[in-house]
Design a protein that fits this description.
The chain has 667 residues and is α/β, with parallel strands linked by helices. It has 20 helices and 21 strands. The strands form five sheets. Strands 1, 2, 6, 7, 8, 9 and 10 form a seven-stranded antiparallel beta sheet that branches. A six-stranded mixed beta sheet has the order 11-14-15-3-16-17, with helices on both faces. A four-stranded parallel beta sheet has the order 19-18-20-21, sandwiched between helices. α13 crosses α16 and α16 runs parallel beside α17.
Length: 667
């Protein structure tokens, strides 16, 4: 049986509405029975979490547990499962049906049709289960929601089945909804046969004017249960919690409690976003913001009032010149057949639809043009800008009818596509701002180290990769490993040098102090060749400049917890200290960072301590006195060393360099 579970944590801030935590579990396989994996024994991941678990497979995923925060980043190589997680969330929140290709074909069987054997394809069910907590007061009072609150949570399950009809060659996809509720026990009630009910229950059923035939329908059984529950409590009791579908469906009230998913695919169409529909981005902005402002305008009132007067004038005896005579002539001719007269009239239009249908966005950059004629970067920027405005106004207003506004999960695939590099930081700031709105949660897939949120919340990073068996594995922190001082240092380092986050995207990383080490490893292929190191892993290794030793410890701690493949190379930095008894006179002395790095890595075999600094390795005859252009000077010096070794085979002077390269590029 295959299973994915996803728990989307929505914001639960003061003043927030419908801020429920969301759990989705998707299962590909046999239908699961009540509480299939002992739900109560799961580790609680916090109020604003999202848990995903999957076993053999929904699309490419087989097993994955993850927690999604208010701003979450899914990262990993192409085809690692990022879009699959996004799609699982979308299917559950929007009640959409997957395509046939998203089901896993598990078998085929031969069936008889018109005397011949034909093949019937069999598919595993996809079951999407959701848990919602942080229940709001309005939900506790709402019919259709209040009745399925379990342990101060709501648990829902949607089973999606694909059925092959071999006789026609067609396929059907069906959906069934269930809630995790307490079993209703009505003593004496048999849903299938009236005569098998107890005499007391039969009397109640007949008092409701149902007979042995009419009482068996689903709707009538629901009415009978309601009647007994409310008026005859002596026959009614509650049993154990279980999954049940009796009298249950995703009705309007429950839909209001479940957030909606807004998806921006990696390759999205601006035309879809700009349509004037209830679900389109522009349509939401039009109904929530634009049309209320238009309707408050005196010109709008002039237009609607004038049209209403025109309608009344056409109906009146004093109609428009020319039309008055025409109407009289038609009435006279009609009166020869029937005693009646004709009235020429216009129907009062739905002004919102008329004005909304005429509204559009155009770009004026010296020449007014439709937006769909602009480049992809501008189109995606516009879609995002519209969403930002919708999020802003969602956080301020209820719906026009006073109902609670639905919360939203923004599922944004690769926001960095077509975006100019200098706008990347601004894009991240806007995404984070949207995630702070009480109604919104942001989940992105990305290949950009600029867009992840490690410094603020290391648990928001979800890393997906394929293992040697080509199965997707997932890594994520369950708790924040940093104290406030470490987090401040990490945030400052990443604000100054966000490319440090490349470490989380790499197949294999070497964490180094700064750009001098990066410059040295720029000749990795030549170094491996000169020192006869029989390894090709340098081709898949990223050298990550951490911007100082103290930042190495913070990055290493996250990478160790995520079980990522990395090593660390850093200076010993004895400098003027006694090598036998080093006693730094300042807590921020670089030597003190050595123990902090080891504490974070927890494995001495993954650390290489350079004796004493990288300058000593490159200039073994004496450390140079320069302080400026160190990376450039190191790059030039390395080339000189390599030329020297190639020309005269002088390896002896550079044993430390060999040791460093061997450590870096041998497992």
């Amino acid at each position: 049986m295959g299973e994915i579970s996803v728990k989307t944590g929505n914001n639960a801030r003061n003043g927030g509405k419908n801020s429920l935590n969301r759990l989705i579990r998707c299962v590909c396989g046999k239908k699961i029975g009540p509480d299939p994996r002992n739900f109560n024994q799961r580790v609680s991941l916090g109020r604003n979490d999202l848990l995903i678990r999957t076993f053999p497979s929904f699309r490419c995923l087989e097993q994955a547990d993850l927690t999604i925060k208010n701003y979450s980043s899914l990262i990993g190589p192409n085809n690692s499962g990022k879009s699959t997680i996004i799609k699982a969330i979308e299917h559950f929140l929007n009640q959409t049906s997957p395509s046939l290709e998203e089901f896993r074909e598990i078998a085929s069987e031969r069936v008889l049709y018109l005397g011949n054997e034909i093949e019937k394809r069999c598919f595993a069910d996809i079951v999407i289960e959701g848990e919602f907590d942080d229940i709001q007061e309005w939900e506790r009072r709402t019919s259709g929601v209040a009745g399925i609150i379990f342990d101060d949570k709501i648990r829902l399950k949607e089973t999606i089945s694909a059925v092959h009809i071999p006789e026609s060659g067609k396929y059907s996809i069906g959906k069934k909804y269930e809630a995790y509720v307490k079993q209703e026990i009505i003593e004496g009630l048999d849903d299938s046969k009236l005569s098998d009910c107890s005499p007391e229950i039969q009397a109640i059923i007949r008092s409701m004017d149902f007979n042995g035939t009419t009482f068996k329908t689903k709707a009538n059984i629901s009415l009978i249960r309601d009647k007994i529950r409310n008026d005859y409590p002596q026959y009614y009791s509650l049993g154990e919690w279980e999954w049940g579908s009796a009298n249950f469906g995703i009705d309007a009230a429950l839909k209001q409690a479940i957030p909606t998913a807004v998806v921006i695919p990696a390759l999205t169409s601006i035309e879809e976003a700009l349509k004037n529909t209830q679900t389109s981005t522009f349509g939401k902005l039009l109904s929530k913001v634009i049309m209320p402002k238009v309707k408050a305008s005196s010109h709008y009132n002039d237009v609607t009032t004038s049209f209403s007067r025109l309608v009344e004038q056409l109906k009146s005896e004093d109609s428009i010149d020319g039309l008055r005579e025409l109407r009289a002539e038609l009435s006279d001719r009609l009166s020869e057949i029937i005693d009646a007269k004709l009235i020429l009239s216009l129907q009062e239009p739905e002004y919102d639809k008329i004005f909304g249908g005429l509204a559009e966005l155009r770009l004026d950059d010296g020449k007014e043009t439709p937006v769909n004629l602009q480049g992809h970067g501008l189109q995606r920027s516009l879609i995002f800008t519209l969403l930002e405005l919708v999020a802003k106004y969602d956080s301020l207003f209820e719906n026009e009818d006073g109902s609670q506004a639905r919360s939203v999960a923004l599922l944004y695939e690769e926001p960095e596509l077509f975006i100019h590099p200098h706008l990347m930081r601004k894009l991240k700031a806007v995404l984070k701002n949207i995630s702070t709105y009480a109604q919104w949660q942001v989940i992105i897939t990305t290949h950009s180290p600029f867009l992840i949120n490690v410094a603020d919340d290391p648990c928001s990073l979800v890393i997906l990769k394929k293992n040697q068996e080509h199965k997707t594995v997932l890594r994520q922190l369950s708790v924040d490993p940093f104290d406030s001082h470490e987090k401040s240092r990490l945030r400052a380092a990443l604000d100054y040098h966000p490319t440090v986050c490349e470490a989380f995207f790499a197949k294999r990383s070497i964490l180094v102090e700064g750009d001098t080490e990066v410059a040295m490893f720029s000749e990795s292929s030549r170094l491996v060749n000169i020192f006869n190191i029989a390894s090709e892993i340098h081709k898949d290794t990223t050298i990550v400049s951490c911007g100082g030793k103290w930042t190495i410890s913070a990055i290493a701690k996250v990478m160790r917890c995520l079980q990522l493949n990395f090593k660390v190379i850093h200076d010993t930095d004895l400098k003027d200290l006694d090598p036998l008894n080093p006693q730094p006179n300042h807590p921020l002395h670089p030597f003190n960072a050595n123990s902090k790095i080891l504490e974070s890595v927890e494995d001495n075999s993954l650390i290489y301590l350079v004796k004493d600094t990288m300058e000593d390795v490159l200039w073994p005859q004496g450390r140079p006195g320069h302080k400026n252009d160190k990376p450039y000077r190191a790059w030039i010096r390395l080339k000189e060393i390599l030329d020297e070794i190639e020309e005269i085979g002088n390896y002896d002077n550079y044993q430390e360099l060999f040791n460093i390269v061997e450590f870096a590029y041998l497992e």
